[in-house]
Structure formats: structure tokens, C-alpha cells
Amino acid sequence: MNRIEVAHKAMKRIYDQGGAPLDQICELTCLAIDKLAGISTEQYRGISGKDYFVYVLGSFRSRPIRSSLMLSDTTSFRDSWTEFLASIDGQTRSSTMDTVKIDSVLYTAIMGFASCFDIWKPKSRKTPGTHFEVLLGSVLTKFLPDLARSKFIPLPNQDEKLSTDIVFGNERGGIVIPAKITTRERIVQPYAHQRILDSIFPEGRYRSILMCVSETQRDDDETAVNEICVPGTVRLFQTHLSSLSGIYYLDPPARYMQEDVAALVRVGSYGTLLRNDLAGLALFTTLAPLVAPPAP
Predict the structure, then answer these.
(1) Between β-strands 161-170 and 51-57, what pairing exists: parallel, antiparallel or unpaired?
(2) From 104's CA, which of 73, 95, 120, 181 has a CA 20 to 30 Å away?
(3) 2-286 has which CATH code?
(4) How far apart are CA 60 and CA 161, in angstroms?
(5) Count of beta carbons in the 10 Å neighbourhood of residue 183
(6) How many Cβ atoms from other residues are within 10 Å of residue 142's Cβ?
(7) Cα–Cα distance between 154 and 223 in angstroms, integer?
(8) DSSP 209-276
(9) Could you give the CA distance from residue 210 to residue 231 in angstroms, rounded to a whole number?
(10) Measuring CA to CA, how many Å separate 73 from each of 42, 123, 127, 153?
(11) Between 123 and 138, whose confidence is greater?
(12) How far apart are CA 107 and CA 112, in angstroms?
């Protein structure tokens, strides 16, 4: 684990300095895949026909891993990562890669790393979340090359700044990316932040897209995986608190894909977002750089 921790810290330093350490993310994921290759797995049964497995070492178990999304060898991951990066067009803000392949390569990049910490560093609970934020921020930098990446939104006529996970924007507004491996009770945070922005700035100046991995939870007694969802809360918040522009998962919960939720807010996979939906945000017209008038 020492090599993984050292590589993670080096990657985060680059990210904190404004970089997008995409090569480092690839190498770190390969280290994680190799580390996990020698330990046992147990099959878990999911809902809606999904299959999962769990890495097991002694008394330690990883979070549930979606079998169809996890790449199990470094060659497959490295090839898919290279293909994914090559497929990104920053001008159209889209990828030409197959949606399932996008989900698979990004799922492997976060869940391989997180599983290593579940098994060998279970007390380091915040580190997988930090890695997830770096992964998303770095990848989205390729899709949004003309927008500045930050963690704060200055508020006019106030000393305070709104602190968020990731924001891409310029002086005209931006896209706010709350990044949560799972939401649980924290689903209120992106809605509350959007409400603050809506009350301070003109309507539509900032838009929020919630990006998560899954809402899964192990049931070890039955070797099953449950999805912990709050559809009623999402409906209430989306209707009465503020409006998110989308909620995207690498492993979308089946319950959130049903009509009563999907009719109120766009719910989909990362593949759907990065191949189609991101480019379709009307916000990008507003975010076009200000152009100085021609000289007389």
C-alpha cells in the first residue's frame, strides 16, 4: 500500500496546483488492480439483475463491486483509459466512446482505489472520496478546457465564498459538480448550495450536476447488495428547494431511474453525460467568453 499512498499524494499535489494528472491516475489505478489481483472475492446478489462481488481478506471486506463494470487486469484498463482520453473533444464537450465503456473505465479507476483502502486502510475513510474528486476534476478538465476549475464560488458584496467540490466557470457563471461516492443523508447539500446560488445570482448563472458512484450497501448475512435510496426526498428537494440539472451515477440506482424521479430531474450514467448530455447544457451559450468590441 505504500506505493499506492505515495502515488496518490503525488497525484493530488499536481491536481491542487491546477493540473489534470491523467497519466498518474492511470498508473495509480494499475497499482490498485495489481494489489487486488491476489486476494479472494465473494459473489453478492444485487437487485434488478445486477451482479456484484466483494474483495475479502481475513475479516476485511470491500464495498460492493459491480461485476460488469470492473476491469480486472491492467492491460484492459490501460487500453480503455487511452481510448477514453483520445475520444474526448473539448470543443464539442463530448466523447465518441461507447457509453458502457466510459462507465467501465471510470468505475474501475475509482473502485479499484477505494477497494484497496477498504481492505488495507479501512480507517482512511476520506481518502477514496478525495481520489474520486481528483478523478472527476481531472477528466472534466479535458471536456471543459476553456473554463477555469476551482473549489470556490466568490459571492458578490460578501467576504464569504461558497465552498463546493468542483466548479468550472468564468466571470459569467459556471457548472457546479458535487462529487459524492454515495449521497446517503448528504443529498441535501447540492440542493442547498444551488438554492444559495439561485438567490444571489441571476437565474441560470450557475447549474449543478450531482455526480456519484452508486447507492449500494452490503448485506453480509444474505450476501446481497441493497440500494439505499430516498426518492421522496429527491422529489421534494427538486420541486421545492432548488433544481439540479442532472444526477449521474456510474452504477445508477434502479429506483432513481423510475418515472416519478426521472420526470423531475435527468438521471443517467456517466456515459450518457459525457457522450451526450454535457454538450447539451444551454448554460454553455451563457458561458461563452466575453469578447471585446472591435476597435473603431
Answers:
(1) unpaired
(2) 120
(3) 3.40.91
(4) 40
(5) 23
(6) 18
(7) 47
(8) EEEES--EEEETTTTEEEE---HHHHHHIIIII---SEEEESS--GGGGSHHHHTTS-EEEHHHIIII
(9) 15
(10) 18, 27, 23, 40
(11) 138
(12) 8
Written as nine digits, the cell of 266 is 435527468
**pTM for the model:** 0.94
What does pLDDT average to over the chain? 93
Amino acid found at 141: T
Cβ 213 vs Cβ 110: under 8 Å: yes
β pairing state of 65-66 and 88-89: unpaired
- Secondary element (H or E) of residue 179: strand 179-180
How far is it, in rounded angstroms, from Cα 258 to Cα 242?
Answer: 20
Nearest to 112 by CA among 151, 140, 81: 81
Cell of residue 128, nine digits: 477514496
Give per-residue pLDDT as tens, 251-290. Answer: 999 999 999 999 999 999 999 999 999 998 867 766 765 4
Residue 118 phi, psi (nearest 5): -60, -40
Per the CB < 8 A criterion, the answer to whether 207 and 245 are in contact is yes
Query: pLDDT tens digits, residue range 67-84?
Result: 999 998 999 999 999 999
Q: Cα–Cα distance between 62 and 182 in angstroms, integer?
A: 15
* H-helix segments, the chain: 2-16, 22-36, 74-87, 99-120, 127-143, 188-200, 231-236, 259-262, 270-272, 283-286
In order of 71, 180, 247, the CA distances from 81 in angstroms are 11, 22, 23
